Amino acid sequence: MNDTFAREVLDGLSATPKKLPSKYFYDKKGDHLFQQIMKLDEYYLTSCEHEILSSSKEALLKLSTAGGKPFNLVEFGAGDGYKTKILLRYFLEQKADFEYAPIDISENVLELLENNLKEELPDLQLKPVADDYFSALHSLRNGGRRNVILFLGSNIGNFTEELAFNFLGKVYDAMKRDDLLLIGFDLKKDPAIIRAAYNDSKGVTREFNLNLLRRINTELKAGIDVDKFIHYPVYNPMTGTAKSYLVSTEDQEFEINGTKISLEAWEAIHTEVSQKFSLNDITRMAIQTGFTELENYFDKRRYFVDAVWKK
Ligand SMILES: C[S@@+](CC[C@H](N)C(=O)[O-])C[C@H]1O[C@@H](n2cnc3c(N)ncnc32)[C@H](O)[C@@H]1O
């Protein structure tokens, strides 16, 4: 893991323009900061999806148990499971026969989730998987059980468009005929509301972005002066893309594993993309990746949608 981390960080910082993979936000500190982000008023995504899952849990249970067979609830990028617990709790109360398999690249967050679920929902059948989205896809092929796949939080928006299509195509290929995919999309809305979600007044998203540099310092002994960077988020309403950057405030140099990295004053490192979608964008994605749209569940403000797709 550390080798891959070092290689991807070096590749990204040697590229033009510079970039860092957002999957590396999530070390122990990053997980904690993301939990703080989810509680921010400006980060509307969490409360919207919480509302959607609360109001659609009965319908989702019906879809998941159609056919009356046990199923696997597989979640890509589960995080701390704050919203998923709405479904887990309800499904257990209704005596559904299922196993929950949260997949996350952060071993730390999976451990938190596992400990929390063992305490809060001791009857839950649980099989956590510490892995990358792409390498975990094969688990969908295991066994004969139906998969109900969750991809919440608009995690799909953290992919570039090309990678999102590629990932969904691979999910489609790995799915069995009666599997379902429940996927959360953050919808296009007032650009000021979107930008604020990545530039909160308490500065938590700023810390989250800068933590990527701190992680590189801790794990790769890089000696980056984090104070020489500013957090700079933008939203482009033409493309529906929110992007976060770390901008170097002066000329600077540091070394990673013997490789010198130089940044000029005001040079930016691209760290995160958070794509926003229209309903037409979502339909196009479903069609182009082979899926059939089954249902769309919205929050009252229609800021967010949880879409159910089948093969
Ligand atoms: C934005 S958080 C969202 C968490 C949760 N889905 C939610 O909606 O609250 C993204 C989560 O996906 C995980 N993640 C990011 N990139 C990943 C990857 N390539 N493979 C597996 N997990 C990944 C992170 O560790 C993090 O827990």
Give a written overview of the molecule.
- With 311 residues, this protein is α/β, with parallel strands linked by helices.
- The protein has two domains: 2-32 and 206-275, no CATH class; 44-187 and 277-310, Rossmann fold (3-Layer(aba) Sandwich), CATH 3.40.50.
- Helix content is 39%, strand content 26%.
- It has helices at 2-14, 28-38, 44-65, 84-93, 107-120, 133-136, 161-174, 191-197, 204-220, 279-288; strands at residues 18-19, 71-76, 98-104, 125-126, 129-130, 146-151, 180-186, 229-236, 241-248, 252-256, 259-263, 268-275, 292-298, 304-310.
- Strands 2, 3, 4, 5, 6, 7, 13 and 14 form an eight-stranded mixed β-sheet that branches.
- α2 (28-38) runs antiparallel to α9 and α3 (44-65) runs parallel beside α4.
- The longest helix is centred in the first third of the chain and has 22 residues, at 44-65.
- S-adenosylmethionine binds at residues 23, 26, 34, 77-79, 82-83, 104-106, 109, 132-133, 152-153, 155.
| Total strand segments | 14
- SS-derived structural category: alpha/beta
Q: Which CATH architecture of the largest domain? A: 3-Layer(aba) Sandwich
CATH H-level superfamily of the largest domain = Vaccinia Virus protein VP39
Number of helices: 10
> Could you describe the largest sheet, including whether it forms a barrel?
8 strands, mixed
Dominant shape: globular
Spatial gap, N to C terminus: 33 Å
Low-confidence stretches: none
If you average the pLDDT, what whole number results? Answer: 97
CATH class term of the largest domain: Alpha Beta
Strand content: 25-35%
Ions, cofactors and other ligands present here are:
S-adenosylmethionine
- Kindly report the CATH topology of the largest domain: Rossmann fold
Radius of gyration from the alpha-carbon trace, in angstroms: 20 Å
Fraction in helix? 25-40%
Oligomer state equals: single chain
